[in-house]
Amino acid sequence: MGKINAIFLDRDGTIIHDVGYPKDPKQVELLPGVIEALKSLKKHRFKLIVVSNQSGIGRGILTLNEVEQVNEHIVSILEKNGISIDATYYCPHAPEEQCSCRKPSPEMLLLAAKALDIDVTHSFMVGDKESDIEAGKRAGCGTILLENNSVLNNFVPMPDFIASNWSEALLYILGKSPDNVERELL
What we know:
It is built from seven helices and six strands. Helices cover 37% and strands 15% of the residues. The protein is α/β, with parallel strands linked by helices.
């Protein structure tokens, strides 16, 4: 069996409402359609990998523990709905630290791909910011922008697809998946 396909997911503004540096799990609210879309993607054998910039840590706004608690709460909510997250990666650095892992760097995606034997060329990066799209492109993934008040006129590179919601993103992913027909027959 060959490499597997994955969906790389930004966290804030993609899986959950972006409330700006959530410190408390009580601030977590999933975006509409996330549960249904991620369930379907799991059914279609995609790995789900969260890749998130968490600069609040490097800026002293959040602690590592607060980020971990929020991440664990998100994973717990998804697990209660029958969805397993295969891995979570985050960059704790502030932008001025000029680290190698902060999106738009593809490092978190490539580390996950190596660790989980993922074929990035048949995988997708879903996010709500230009840095998500650039990271996906640089990793060799298809890219989907969830339109959550994003300003599109200056995006470089442009996303492969712009979705106004998770239903549209899911349809695009399943339509573009190279072995979708084979998966549907299983």
